[in-house]
Amino acid sequence: MTRYLRFGTTLGSLIATAAGGALTGLYFENERHAPAIDPHWIEDPADRTLAQCARQVREFLERRRERFELPMAPEGTDFQLRVWGEIAAIPYGETLTYAGLARRVGAPSAARAAGAATGRNPLSIVVPCHRVVGSSGLLTGYAGGLARKQRLLEIEGVLQPALV
Hints:
By secondary structure, the protein is α/β, with parallel strands linked by helices. The protein contains five helices and six strands; from the N terminus they run ββββααβααβα.
């Protein structure tokens, strides 16, 4: 049974999903690949995994956390799972190109496929796909929007905040 929690952050509203005591999804509300809330899901703010997720995401956004300690069970193809595993291994404050990501999963000619798998990451922020950048270092693609990707990298000290 899928349980979910909608919670607010400085980057907007997020929806977390969990099943069997593990986080299965974390999406910015209205992001490109966010699933619609299924009527069979149960909204459960008391669910331990969901509550921990909300707390840890807020700590991350407040620069009080660099690593997430959550049980995770994303669903995807073998290739997607390998890509997401490599993304999860990118250290806080560092970036990796899509080409570098493809090499790490053993498919050096599959940068576009690695990019597509990155775009389908069901665990935004927790599996830090915002750390994957274009080959020139430019910010490209992010299901939650490039402004959020930029802000997440600013939080990690990779980018300097834009002056207004």
